[in-house]
Amino acid sequence: xxxxxxxxxxxxxxxxxxxxxxxxxxxxxxxxxxxxxxxxxxxxxxxxxxxxxxxxxxxxxxxxxxxxxxxxxxxxxxxxxxxxxxxxxxxxxxxxxxxxxxxxxxxx
Length: 108
Known about the structure:
Number of domains: 1
CATH class: Alpha Beta
Structural class: alpha+beta
Shape: rod-shaped
Number of strands: 3
């Protein structure tokens, strides 16, 4: 028994695939360009991270001469962890903005 081919559904699926690829390219660009700045708990270290998770800048505020290495390492770990969380949050927010209106083919 031959199956019927729904040409309109196939055309819509192809159009949706192309639109999805455009949205994905837009998302990839936005993730690479969007940055978030976070600070260590004591505000002495600032890290700027893209939504893709790339650290693009690190600033140390104040002198390092009188800091204990263990204390500095603790602050650095804390700010890098915060940067990773901020990058994840930014990706999720951008994803919702870019793909939020994209509807599925279910029910067609």
